Amino acid sequence: VIYQLFQGGQVSAWADNAPNPQESSEWAMSTPSLSRMNVIAKKLEQITLDDGDTKTISFANYPAAAPSEWVQFFIRVRGSSRLVLGGARLNISGKDTDNSSTITSKIPAFGNAVFPGIIAISSYNGLTFTLEGLVDGTVLELFAAICVEDDDARWTSLA
Amino acid sequence: MFLLRQISARLLDGEQETVGSSRNIQLRVNDVLPSTILRLEDGDCKSESVVLNASDTYAVPLPQNYASTDLLQVFLKTNVVIKVTVVSPDEGTSNYLVKGTEGTTDGEHEGILCFTGTVTSITITIPSGSNDAQVDFAMFKLPDLTLNASYRSGSQTTGVENGT
Q1: Which of B18, B19, B75 has its CB closest to that of A9?
Q2: Which of B24-33, B81-90, B128-137, B146-155 is modeled with the greatest confidence?
Q3: pTM higher than 0.80 for the full model?
Q4: How far apart are CA A42 and CA B94, in angstroms?
């Protein structure tokens, strides 16, 4: 089974009193994005973490010895109720673009049920992926997918 | 100043041209309702679009009002593999590899990065031998999300406004 992921983002700011950015005549900024990704494996999970708790994210048959995989993460991060702030981070240990030096990434996010924190990354060359709580009672909704290029044999043989 | 941020992911069965061409959406992730709008001050946000060549290093300009003790929300997209180095007073130094592709062989797939944290500096490096990178970013200083006054809800144009 194959899937396609349509991922998008938009951050718009405007200065006048219009109810939404499309009706504004005083845009300050807008960065729209939409992309179609080829997905060969996926993971969906909801996790609650306290401050200092960790949870490793694993994929079946993930080629850790040659980590040139393209893993897309979307993680919503929120506190236990409407305006209570939650916080967590995604820690990635992997290889640099030379495929030999080790690099580490800490990708934090903070938010609540009204405006959740979002961790999103089209990661590359990752070896290990770990979630870490930064605030007690933080709820994380995780979607992760291994994505491939259009000419990847794993995609073309399935599509 | 008002700000709307929307990050979405929709997972469809099979090979699809558009979201509308699928009968079955397996998963839909939206970050906020379209009505969830934040209140910001002038100088709280910054966006830019830059073209970078192989081996270039680019220091991302931060919003005018931002101090490294504040939380900064960052959204970035790219069409090639880039390395993003973030120095943070809380997290230390992190390096992210963010992958996007372009061209008919690999396909057109934007890579994205989104996070919220304290930031001292953000630097983008293009690996040697890479194609030119088109990098777009938008960022803003996060207001105190525990206060109702940080949100705009309802419509100011009709005079109906909640949560203030």
Answers
A1: B75
A2: B81-90
A3: yes
A4: 25
